[in-house]
Amino acid sequence: MREYINIIKKNPIIIIFIAIELLLYLLFMCIDIYSLQHQGALGGFLYDIALIKGLSPSMLKYYGILLCFVFSLCSYIETREKARAFLTVAMLFTVISDYFLLLHPEIIVPGLFTFCIAQSIYLYVITGGDKKKTGILIGIRIIIAIAGTIVLKVSDIVCFDADQNMNAVLFLGILYALSFLGNVGRLIVYHVRKKDDKVPRCLFKRPKLFLIGLLLFVLCDINVLIFNMDRFILITSESYYTLRYAATVLMWGFYLPSQVIIVLSA
Known about the structure:
Largest sheet: none
Strand content: under 5%
Low-confidence stretches: none
């Protein structure tokens, strides 16, 4: 940890990056928490901020993700390092994903698809740039996702209408979950067995930070799952909806910090 703090102290650009992200984070978290406590209503200073064009909570969140991409792009332009190039491309797909999922939630399929691409890039990074292993693992995940989609549809565990768009959402959701959890698992194995020469070396310079970022990302996605669960499963419990309200705040409470940490890990 001291090593990371020293690196940050020596680089004013990183300090500025973290400071701006922290400001955006505090603003949208305050608005979200206040809105949750007052059933969607805002007042005073927070209300004035939310009324300013381009400063809605959704836009503040998106600015945070855009800044992660810009920071990673500038970092790559400065160093021309391979790892930062992959990070920049992954962040580009993340920006595209959040454009749909955050700003246009009615168009969910492109957002899920580009998130799957971002996770495939992270898999390539975790495998140390092994194209063959990455390709095989992606193929296996796609096959399992297809099988899982068919099983869930046939068994009627998932309940929604015959909308073909929802079939794509279910498939991409399963594929994304497999990719994400698989990447976290492989990165954990890397840390446990990193002294073993047979374990591929992660391309990012600070894999511990990368793992922390992905674990925060997992916590975010748990809340996303809770928030969207009633779209696929019939739920009548009042306690679920209380939990769902909390998930609206917690998902971004974990998400933006996860992206900032992932960017710094490279």
